[in-house]
From TrEMBL:
Domain ABC transporter per the UniProt entry, residue ranges: 5-226
Pfam family, one: ABC_tran
Name the record gives this protein: ABC transporter ATP-binding protein
Annotated keywords: ATP-binding, Nucleotide-binding
Amino acid sequence: METGLKIDNINYQKLNKKILTDINIEIPLGQLVVLLGENGVGKTTLMRIISDLNKGYTGTINLNGITDEKRKMLVSYSDSLLAFNNRDTLGHILNFYQHAYPNFKSQRAQELMTFMNLNYAQRLGELSKGNREKFVIVLTLSRKAVLYLLDEPLSGIDIFSRDKIISSLIKWIDDDTILLVSTHHVNELEQIIDSAIFLKNGKVIAQRDVESIRSDDGLSVQDYYRQVHLEN
Ligand SMILES: Nc1ncnc2c1ncn2[C@@H]1O[C@H](COP(=O)(O)OP(=O)(O)OP(=O)(O)O)[C@@H](O)[C@H]1O
């Protein structure tokens, strides 16, 4: 059986506007990968397509050999929690997740809640922006999945919590999984990522191993990103 994530020729448009063009990406299991690109380039759209939330694309997405919509059982992605009410407590939402997803691990959720200093009795609407993002990380990493998607997970989180989360991100996921993270701050993830995917104008302009960017190009991922962005 094929393993890992293989995206072939994804094209997607919305309201007659071309958003993603000929997207081809391959990620083996065990990798932590960042998705980089300017505002509006299509990072969230791509994550929603992978999770089967956005339909109407052409091309194929193969996750561990599964190409139909069943793959969504192997993907853990929590978008903006808009389906929940601001008066819902975090405990209520966790309870909902536990019933909605057979792969939800309560023990892990409990550990992550403690790690993030979040409280079951807090209401969603009372959370600050950063604490809401921490809660999205809790929900995402509490499921046993093959592919974890985090969409700009740290943008509102303070530097101390950020350091703590980044340095322990790997311990929350199993070895045979993929973590795909979109970010505008690649420098802070640089030490822990295996590879990076660079998007521009709805296309993949490069996918590179971090190790080869350092050894072959002598650049940091951030500097390589600037270079490849200007060249394309
Ligand atoms: N519901 C929608 N209807 C129409 N166009 C949309 C919709 N959602 C997103 N788009 C468009 O799709 C494109 C890609 O948006 P997307 O949110 O995927 O970008 P992004 O790379 O995640 O951006 P950012 O870095 O700002 O989060 C944008 O041009 C956006 O205007």
